[in-house]
Amino acid sequence: MKAVGLHHYLPIEKDESLVDETVNKPAPGERDILVKIRAVSVNPVDTKVRGPKEGEEEELKILGWDAAGVVEETGSGVTMFKPGDEVYYAGSIARQGTNSEYHVVDERIAAFKPDRLTFEQAAAMPLTGLTAWEGMFERLGISRDAEANASKSILIIGAAGGVGSIAIQLAKWAGLRVIGTASRPETEKWARDNGADETISHYESFKKQLEEKGLDQPDYIFCLNSTDQHWEAMMEVIAPQGKICSIVETGTPVNISLLQQKSVTFVMEFMFTKALFGTKDMQTQHEILTEMAKLFDEQKLTSTLTETIEPFNALSLKKAHEKLESGKTIGKIVVSGFDQIT
User: What is its subcellular localisation (predicted)?
Assistant: First the structure.
């Protein structure tokens, strides 16, 4: 089968940063489904894994984790899917990625594709959707009862990105007042189009902007960009006994003592944790994606796909990585055109 991956960890502009190769089609394990891929999307984790570092891979390391496709074969212990089922999922960072014609994934972290979405629209959603759902409803403990959240608010830092775009929608579905950070007119518009009630700049004082808009301190903060850069600003505006969740590792030490006076809770979210460690609640990712599929089909959520690049090959994926690394992307980029593989 055709696949795109790497042997050397290089800047994206290098010819061998991503390469086309023919590799053996994988065989499903006991709980695995073998999926014929129809579309994949790129995420910051793809560029971080690919980025320059020491080491060399003898076997092609295949990147990519978001995917949508059709079940081709099932393992002996699979109970939830059968050949012909259309699925979407975010995969496991501990296994080969989805940038290939066929891919195997544990059934417990996959779900039936939303009927209303194309394969491209669906492929844009698993990783960001799971990250947003787990970050808000599991890590921050936000209720999904809209009435319970009627007087509560959330500040989403990086609201126009992949996670931010769907986090806004989920937060509004849960009844929260949503304040999103954005730095350009087009990202402000995108955040508002996805449901943000207010937008502020992440380059200016959060406290001053919130006060100017007459907004209360947010009960929750979901940090999707530069945790250490925004650390003191978050501590300044979070409500007493509020909660903060970040998905971004820190590059420099931060002063956790700033959490104390307001008794603030700080948690981290990493979407791959459940599959990486085989946690007892691993199947909740199947359940979350199933619930989200229902919300997509009921038109309570919309896909955050903004650009599709074809055909599926190393050149297309390099273009997607370059766009993502520019830091100016809005929503999600998908690579499709698997039917154009030669």
Answer: Cytoplasm
CATH architecture of 131-268: 3-Layer(aba) Sandwich (3.40)
Supply the DSSP symbol for 256. G
Nearest to 132 by CA among 60, 195, 71: 195
For the chain, the domains span 2-125+276-340, 131-268
Q: Which architecture, in CATH terms, is 2-125+276-340?
A: Alpha-Beta Complex (3.90)
The answer to whether the beta carbons of residues 166 and 129 sit under 8 Å apart is: yes
Spatial distance between the Cα atoms of 242 and 236, rounded to a whole number of angstroms: 11
Q: pTM score > 0.85 for this model?
A: yes
The two three-digit tokens of residue 145, written as one number: 């009862």
The pLDDT tens digits of the residues spanning 56-98 come to: 999 999 999 999 999 999 999 999 999 999 999 999 999 999 9
**Residue (of 213, 179, 184) closest to 198 by Cα position:** 179
